[in-house]
């Protein structure tokens, strides 16, 4: 009997051996096959599973439009609580009104800084300044800049970004990061050249890297410095856009949007038009349009729509005389009206009502306007037809007694709902109430005012830049203390971060100076709000700011 | 009108009172006269402040407890009345 053994190899099951047994005696073959037992391993795997669920109140309860109903308001324990607390609370509320315990008491939370220090003087690299004066547009609203126009780029506008660390400078767009240790005064961190001079800048209120600007040619541009290509949106000159220098751009909260970064862009130009832009269509087409034009009788709006109608009929053919009140000025009004079309140099939005804004024109007139005068305001660009023609609305609600020259600067007080300040080429700094046509306080700076900015920290402080190169810091409460610097000052910006009490000042030589303000000028003081209250209420009289000292 | 509504109206009509919030012990606003966003922020912050103040007092003296909290700020006088179940926050502008 012969036994033959065969081995097969299989990659999966290993050795497979077969034994062949030959049984000669029976005359047959007996075959046995044997394999290694197959090992089977079983392993289970599965992801860990956790379930979480949260529940909140419906949105309208959270947002307060509806009071929650499942909490019984007539709960006896709440009633008891309120009944117990009411006498104590009422007594304290009364006492607070009479108490003078905290008057004049101020906590010094920070080490006081004394004096105003100049931290930086930023200049554009000389190589990049346009050599030929011809290329240099007259960026300031007034002709008085000609003395300095040969010097190179002017600083037309300034903007601190939303966190207050980066300063952007108009003319060409230059950005300096002041927090950076590598800060070079003559070398901006980022520089973008535009086809024409940048007239104005506005940093996005919440996104630190986003900034909008308007050019001398009438373009409106938006840069995002986090994007690979910074210029993310621009208006098209061949389509609907401004045809004249853009004098101001501003961000306005998108109405009805819960997204805190949703803002619309409003631009105004010297062509007398205002456009509303949305980033959703990358500024290809404006979504709103306003035009300030003198309709008959419009000029004499003094006390709102009702009075307006009445006065038109009463004064007949010479409404101007009624408004101006003196024959000598009638001629001036005629000139002013002729110039109306070249209107608009200053624009400021109210910090209390985001759709209300103030408008100052080259003719010196001042208006309170509202974006809601356009019934379509705030619609999304998707709801527009491709080639829809925009109808211009008239935004004016109310007009104020004008300046005797162009209004160059204008800003609503960030602390008082009804107060705003305006400065013009007539050198007057006027403090006005939104509700009164006549100014409440007038300060004569004896030089054209180009820039003006309220302090975001000290309610009664305002900075003014003049044609004589002065930066004047006015304090409506205690005596003012002007500090000085050279050529005309076109742009002023307080840094809105309270940790960085800086004031940036841009002048006609293209220099930007960053001042660190003393504690006295940056920390709010007792009694400042009351000073504003009195000013807005008109008890401050007019003429001298001394009258307002508390 | 319920007595609760009546009392709340009475407090908010006091001179200088700019806002009023009633919170329950979970910190949920059940009545407010202020902006929604401000209310929510106040609810979270004042619940925390109050429990912190209370634990401070309790740690100093076991037998003592917080009964009323008044805060003087540059803009406001804030009166906080705590209770086992509720918290009442009143904002007053004392220079009204």
TrEMBL record, chain A:
Ranges of Polar residues compositional bias? 135-144
The primary location reported for this protein is cytoplasm
> What keyword terms does UniProt attach to this protein?
Cytoplasm, Repeat, WD repeat
Pfam families in UniProt: WD40
The record's InterPro entries line, in alphabetical order, gives: Dynein_IC (IPR050687), WD40/YVTN_repeat-like_dom_sf (IPR015943), WD40_repeat_dom_sf (IPR036322), WD40_rpt (IPR001680)
Record's keyword annotation contains Secreted: no
Q: According to its UniProt record, where is this protein located? A: Cytoplasm
**Protein origin, superkingdom:** Eukaryota
| Annotated region described as Disordered, given as residue ranges | 125-151
Name assigned to this protein? WD repeat domain 34
> Which organism is this protein's natural source?
Paratrimastix pyriformis
UniProtKB/TrEMBL annotation, chain B:
Family matches, as SMART domains: Robl_LC7
User: InterPro entries, per this entry?
Assistant: DYNLRB1/2 (IPR016561), Roadblock/LAMTOR2_dom (IPR004942)
Localization of this protein:
Cytoplasm, Cytoskeleton
Q: Which domain of life is it from?
A: Eukaryota
Q: Which UniProt keywords apply?
A: Cytoplasm, Cytoskeleton, Dynein, Microtubule, Motor protein, Transport
What Pfam family does this protein match (any one)?
A: Robl_LC7
Coiled-coil residue spans: none
Say if the entry is tagged with keyword DNA repair.
Answer: no
Q: Where is the Roadblock/LAMTOR2 domain?
A: 4-92
Homology family = Belongs to the GAMAD family.
| Function (record text) | Acts as one of several non-catalytic accessory components of the cytoplasmic dynein 1 complex that are thought to be involved in linking dynein to cargos and to adapter proteins that regulate dynein function. Cytoplasmic dynein 1 acts as a motor for the intracellular retrograde motility of vesicles and organelles along microtubules.
The protein here is known as Dynein light chain roadblock
């Amino acid at each position: 009997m012969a036994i033959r053994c065969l081995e097969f190899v299989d990659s999966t099951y290993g050795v497979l051996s077969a034994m062949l047994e030959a049984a000669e005696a029976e005359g047959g073959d007996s075959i046995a096959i044997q394999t290694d037992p197959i090992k089977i391993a079983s392993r289970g795997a599965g992801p860990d599973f956790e379930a979480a669920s949260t529940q909140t109140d419906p949105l309208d309860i959270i947002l307060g439009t509806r009071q929650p109903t499942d909490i019984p308001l007539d709960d006896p324990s709440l009633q008891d609580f309120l009944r117990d607390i009411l006498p104590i609370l009422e007594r304290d509320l009364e006492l607070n009104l009479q108490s003078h315990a905290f008057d004049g008491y101020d906590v010094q939370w920070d080490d006081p800084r004394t004096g105003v220090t100049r931290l930086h003087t930023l200049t554009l690299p000389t190589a990049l300044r346009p050599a030929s004066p011809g290329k240099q547009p007259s960026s300031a609203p007034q002709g008085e800049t000609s003395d300095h126009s040969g010097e190179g780029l002017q600083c037309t506008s300034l903007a601190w970004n939303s966190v207050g660390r980066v300063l952007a400078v108009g003319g060409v767009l230059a950005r300096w990061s002041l927090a950076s240790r590598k800060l070079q005064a003559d070398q901006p961190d980022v520089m973008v050249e535009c086809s024409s001079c940048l007239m104005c800048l506005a940093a996005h209120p919440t996104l630190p890297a986003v900034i909008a600007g308007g050019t001398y040619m009438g373009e409106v541009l938006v840069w995002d410095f986090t994007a690979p290509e910074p210029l993310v949106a621009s208006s098209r000159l061949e389509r609907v856009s401004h045809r004249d220098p853009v004098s101001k751009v501003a961000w306005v909260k998108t109405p009805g949007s819960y997204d805190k970064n949703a803002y619309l862009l409003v631009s105004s130009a010297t062509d007398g038009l205002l456009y509303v832009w949305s980033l959703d269509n990358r500024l290809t087409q404006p979504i709103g349009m306003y035009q300030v034009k003198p309709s008959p009788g419009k000029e004499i709006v003094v006390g709102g729509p009702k009075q307006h109608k009445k006065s038109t009929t009463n004064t007949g053919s010479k409404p101007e005389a009624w408004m101006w009140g003196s024959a000598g000025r009638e001629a001036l009004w005629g000139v002013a009206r002729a110039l109306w079309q070249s209107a608009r140099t200053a624009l400021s939005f109210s910090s209390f009502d985001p759709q209300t804004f103030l408008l100052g024109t080259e003719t010196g007139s001042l208006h309170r306007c509202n974006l809601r005068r356009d019934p379509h305001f705030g619609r999304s660009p998707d709801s527009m037809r491709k080639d829809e023609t925009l109808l211009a609305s008239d935004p004016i609600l109310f007009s104020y007694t004008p300046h005797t020259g162009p209004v160059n600067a204008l800003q609503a007080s960030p602390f008082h709902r009804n107060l705003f300040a305006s400065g013009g080429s007539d050198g007057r700094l006027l403090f006005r109430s939104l509700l009164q046509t006549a100014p409440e306080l007038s300060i004569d700076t004896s030089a054209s005012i180009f820039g003006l900015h309220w302090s975001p920290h000290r309610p009664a402080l305002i900075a003014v830049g003049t044609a004589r190169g002065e930066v004047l810091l006015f304090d409506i409460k205690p005596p003012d203390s002007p500090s000085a610097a050279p050529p005309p000052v076109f742009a002023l910006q307080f840094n809105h971060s309270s940790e960085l009490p800086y004031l940036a000042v841009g002048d006609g030589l293209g220099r930007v100076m960053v001042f660190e303000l003393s504690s006295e000028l940056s920390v709010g003081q007792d009694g400042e709000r009351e000073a504003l209250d009195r000013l807005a209420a008109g008890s401050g009289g007019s003429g001298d700011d001394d009258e307002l000292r508390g | 009108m319920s007595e609760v509504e009546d009392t709340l109206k009475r407090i908010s009509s006091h001179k200088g009172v700019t806002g009023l919030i009633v919170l329950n012990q979970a910190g949920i606003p059940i009545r407010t006269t202020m902006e929604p966003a401000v209310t929510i922020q106040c609810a979270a912050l004042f619940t925390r402040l109050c429990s912190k103040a209370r634990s401070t007092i309790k740690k100093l003296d076991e037998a003592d407890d917080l009964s009323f909290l008044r805060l003087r700020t540059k803009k406001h006088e804030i009166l906080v009345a705590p209770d086992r179940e509720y918290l009442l926050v009143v904002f007053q502008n004392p220079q009204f």
